[in-house]
Specification:
The chain has about 350 residues and is mostly helical. It folds into two domains: about 25-155, Tyrosine recombinase, N-terminal domain (DNA polymerase, domain 1); about 170-350, hpI Integrase, Chain A. Helices cover about 50% and strands about 10% of the residues. The chain has 14 helices and seven strands. It is globular and about 65 Å long. It starts with about 20 loop residues before the first helix and ends in an 18-residue tail after the last helix. The relative contact order is 0.10.
Length: about 350
């Protein structure tokens, strides 16, 4: 795709310095840090802006500055989105620049990005322009139209958004069976039960879980108060249900972990060094625990922290739990969003396929 606006082309460019953000981008990061309650959002925005600064400098030979030209945003899209040509899938990002971006740790691997990544990075740039009250190139018709066409082309090529495989009750039981009586096994058992039973908690919410929000209401029965979530970043609203029950075998697992670890304050789930507890687990570490236990259990699929969230919703729907009750546990505000987490499973496993059969 050609641009009518002439910008510096890639001829020679300095070695990228990912730690040295352009002044405008660095200032935008500080504003986002001050406003965003979600650490995950902050990290993703910071990463996206670092990439924008390095790509812009490498592509055009000048530091990024706001407002970013519309033509540069178009160039970013065609540089990173694959399209079908006679020679196969192609994109416009120069190989030399691509290599530098990878070497600088700003890209995981060479080649085109997934469309979802491009959309996210443009959304971040759009947010920066809004915060700085600058003319927003990301909202221009040419940019929106190009992204819409890119989505349609990706669908025609058979690309679909990837979802983590749901871990329903049977899968959860398989993961739990891999947990022995070691301190790590006791921790992982409590973590898995907590994440599932409290409403399919996100990995960031599990990592942030604190003992100050956990209340014992009976023998092996707890209530966890979810003060902050992705949809409730400013704290519980009038329509939310922040208290999440941890009962039955999930409560027993929590009691066993607190007893074995001796924890009385701070993060509930910690890093371990043999028989010693350390600082709080990171969200990535929570996802890694799910993946490691799924591998040990021999489960087939793509697993991660969100597998427990999808699994909770899927299992609840299979057992006939009313949607409002599920949403009260998950903190979803949109019916469309919660339905999007439901995974029917294999064709033969879908209960809607057996409507003509007798019970």
């Amino acid at each position: 795709m050609k641009n009518n606006v002439h910008l510096p082309t890639l001829s020679s460019f300095p070695v990228l310095a990912p730690d040295a953000l352009a002044t405008s981008a660095a200032e935008a990061v500080r504003e986002i840090l001050a406003e965003a309650a979600s650490a995950n959002t902050t990290r993703s925005y910071h990463s996206a802006l670092r990439y924008w600064a390095a790509w812009f400098q490498g592509r055009f030979g000048t530091p990024i500055a706001l407002p970013v030209p519309e033509a540069a945003v178009v160039q970013f899209i065609v540089d990173h989105v694959a399209r079908r040509a006679k020679a196969g899938l192609v994109w416009e990002l120069p190989v030399a620049l691509d290599t530098q971006l990878v070497a600088a740790g700003l890209k995981q691997h060479a080649g085109a990005y997934k469309l979802s990544t491009v959309v996210h990075r443009i959304a971040v740039l759009s947010s920066v322009h809004q915060l700085k009250k600058q003319p927003n190139p990301c909202e221009q018709p040419a940019v929106r139209h190009l992204l819409a066409r890119a989505r349609r082309a990706a669908v025609k090529r058979g690309e679909r958004p990837s979802k983590k495989t749901a871990i329903v009750r049977s899968g959860l039981e398989a993961l739990i069976a891999t947990c022995d009586d070691s301190l790590e096994g006791v921790r992982d058992r409590a973590l898995l039960y907590f994440a599932f039973a409290s409403g399919g908690r996100r990995r960031s919410e599990v990592a942030a879980a604190d003992l100050s929000d956990l209340r014992l209401i009976g023998p092996d029965q707890y209530v966890y108060r979810l003060e902050h979530s992705k949809t409730q970043q400013a704290g519980p609203s009038a329509t939310s249900t922040p208290d999440k029950p941890i009962l039955g075998i999930a409560g027993q697992a929590m009691t066993a972990w607190l007893t074995a670890s001796g924890l009385t304050e701070g993060a509930i789930f910690r890093r371990l060094w043999t028989k010693r507890t350390g600082d709080a687990l990171s969200p990535a570490a929570v996802g890694a625990i799910v993946q490691r236990r799924a591998a040990k259990a021999g489960l087939k699929g793509s697993f991660g922290g969100h597998s427990l969230r999808s699994g909770f919703i899927t299992e609840g729907a299979r057992q006939g739990v009313a949607l409002p009750a599920l949403m009260a546990m998950t903190e979803h505000r949109s019916v469309a969003s919660v339905v999007g987490y439901f995974q029917a499973g294999g064709v033969a496993d879908n209960p809607a396929a057996r409507l003509l059969e007798d019970d």
